[in-house]
Structure formats: structure tokens, C-alpha cells
């Protein structure tokens, strides 16, 4: 199955604009916890649907977003 987003900017646009989800530090941290938990049912399904490599990419995008958010706070 094709990955949903092909770049960080596209991914961020999908979350914040298309889905209307505020990309806050709290949200990014919660998603990172879930996506890093191999026992999480949604994470396992995501990995099956899109592959482990894309899961790793999405995790890296959440880490990047968290870094940007924390830099903006400083």
C-alpha cells in the first residue's frame, strides 16, 4: 500500500490542515509513545498496512515536530 505522505511538510499539512489536529508537544509525545509500542494494536495495524520503514519515517516526523515545538518554546 502507498504511504500516506511522502515528506515531512506534506505530513504536517495533513495533520494540521486536512485533519484539523493541533500539532502540540503533548500530542506529538502521546503519538510517539503509541507508535513506539509494538504491543499497541493501532501501531501494529499501521505497520502491517504501511510497513515498518514508513512507521519509522512517521516516528522521525513526530520527533522532528517535537524538536521544532520545543525550540519555539525556548
Which terms summarize this structure?
74 residues; mainly alpha; 4 helices; globular
Kindly describe this structure:
It is a single chain. The chain has 74 residues and is mainly alpha-helical. It has a domain at 23-73. The chain has helices at 8-18, 25-35, 41-50, 52-73. The longest helix is centred in the last third of the chain and has 22 residues, at 52-73. The chain starts with 7 loop residues before the first helix and ends with a helix.
- Radius of gyration using CA atoms only: 12 Å
Structural class: mainly alpha
User: How much helicity do the residues have?
Assistant: over 70%
What portion of residues belong to β-strands?
under 5%
Number of discrete helical segments? 4
Indicate the mean pLDDT: 92
Largest sheet, in brief, is: none
Shape: globular
Total strands? 0
List SSEs in N-to-C order. Answer: HHHH
Stretches where pLDDT falls below 50 for ≥5 residues? none
C-alpha end-to-end distance: 39 Å
In short:
Helices cover 73% and strands 0% of the residues.
Topology:
Elements: H1 8-18, H2 25-35, H3 41-50, H4 52-73
Helix pairs in contact: 2-4, 3-4
